[in-house]
Design goal:
The protein is of the alpha+beta class and 385 residues long. The chain has helices at residues 24-30, 83-92, 259-262, 265-283, 317-320, 325-341, 344-349, 364-368, 374-384, and strands spanning 3-5, 13-16, 36-39, 42-45, 48-49, 63-70, 76-79, 102-107, 111-112, 131-135, 149-151, 161-174, 182-185, 191-193, 234-252, 290-296, 303-309.
């Protein structure tokens, strides 16, 4: 949202020149504080959270609060009820807390630029890098007590298991630039990534945070700092988060692969992206309609691949590729031949990923962080087939 001067000239906003919308799962990556976006021929930078959908600084909660903790099984357990609820989930799943608990904030009205932060010339956009997605669809004690629907020998691979839920919950969370969360001003909504791992009140705030100007004021030089002397209306070390209910499919490779292979993040992530693209190709969908993440499926931290419909409520796409044995076999074979292999010339020259196979907008960040290995994924899937 871009802010504009009002007709009275008091330096406050009255209109939104740009009102950008994204589903919650994308907004936390593209619009979170510190991210920039090119729109209308200029670059805008997100500076904080909206306190009200109109853009006014109404005295209202910034969003729902929650708690989260990493289990020693590799999964993230969370609750918007209480800190004790997280402990109950850990116990129900036989996991022990690893490190301390983190605080979640689920923004209610979205994000905003600051009126004093003028648009700049177009340049490369900056997205949040510490954004992760997990699901509670297969966590005992959080989802419905009903067992997920199970499919055996998926794609003709004996032992490969798929579990499906039609209303599984996804959680996307943004931990800030260096995973220490965000500091958020509860007075105006201004936010910035935490630099230090610990600190309360005004102690060890990000540079410039203590003297920031309210984000609804146009001219920094005409207005005093947002905080009065001795005040500290701030939330510290918050993970920004959002939830979405959709169709979720878990592929469990532990019966068909060695434990050390299931624990290889690059292998499972690459297989996941390949199967995501294979799903889109088979069902003639835009690849952005299918999402992928990984979760731990046992105490050995073996990873399972989670495919989900990337639309709120789901569309039945991820179910379509497993509920019929003929279609599931075609899906696996197409992924092997048309996504990972393609042809002899491609197989000889492409080691990691390229525009002909796995390199897409959705995978570019994983490729840059050396998380993708096409050849390893092809060899593994071919051996299973």
């Amino acid at each position: 949202v871009r802010l504009a001067r009002d007709s009275k000239g008091d330096g406050s906003r009255i209109e939104n020149q740009f009102r950008l919308e994204r589903p919650a799962l994308l907004a936390l990556r593209e619009y979170a504080p510190g991210c920039s976006v090119v729109v209308g021929g200029v670059t805008l930078r997100s500076r904080g959270l909206l306190k009200h959908w109109t853009g006014s600084l109404a005295d209202a909660p910034l969003g729902m609060r929650g708690h989260a903790a990493k289990g020693d099984d590799g999964n993230l357990y969370y609750s918007t009820k209480s800190s004790q609820a997280v402990n109950d989930l850990l116990n129900a799943n036989g996991a022990k807390i690893q490190g301390g608990k983190s605080q979640l904030l689920l923004p209610r009205h979205g994000f905003s630029t600051a009126a004093w932060d003028r648009p700049r010339r177009p340049r490369q956009t900056d997205f949040g890098t510490n954004v992760e997605i997990t699901t509670s669809a297969f966590v005992r004690g959080l989802q419905s007590s009903e067992q997920p629907e199970q499919f055996d020998d998926v794609g003709g691979i004996k032992g490969l298991v798929a579990r499906y839920r039609d209303r599984g919950e996804l959680l996307v969370y943004n931990k800030g630039n260096i995973s220490n969360g965000y500091a958020i001003c509860t007075s105006c909504g201004y936010a910035d990534s935490e630099i230090e791992a610990i600190g309360d009140g005004r102690d060890k705030l990000p540079s410039g945070f203590e003297d920031h100007k309210p984000i609804d004021k146009l001219d920094k030089t005409k207005y005093s700092a947002c905080w009065r002397k001795g005040e500290a209306p701030v939330l510290r070390h918050q993970w920004l988060a959002a939830t979405q209910t959709t169709d979720v499919l878990l592929l469990d490779f532990t019966p068909v692969l060695k434990p050390e292979d299931c624990a290889k993040f690059s292998l499972m992530l690459t297989l996941g992206h390949a199967l995501r693209l294979g799903t889109a190709r088979l069902l003639e969908l835009d690849s952005r309609e299918i999402g992928i993440t990984t979760v731990s499926v046992n105490e050995k931290k073996s990873l399972g691949i989670v495919l989900y419909d990337n639309v709120p409520g789901g569309a039945g796409h991820v179910l379509e590729v497993v509920r019929n044995s003929t279609i599931s076999s075609e899906w696996i074979k197409l992924t092997q031949e048309k996504i990972l292999y393609i042809n002899d010339e491609h197989h000889q020259r492409c080691e990691i990923a390229c525009l002909d196979c796995l390199l897409t907008f959705e995978t570019q960040n994983d490729v840059m962080q050396d998380r993708i290995n096409r050849r390893l994924a092809y060899d593994t899937l071919s051996a299973l087939i």
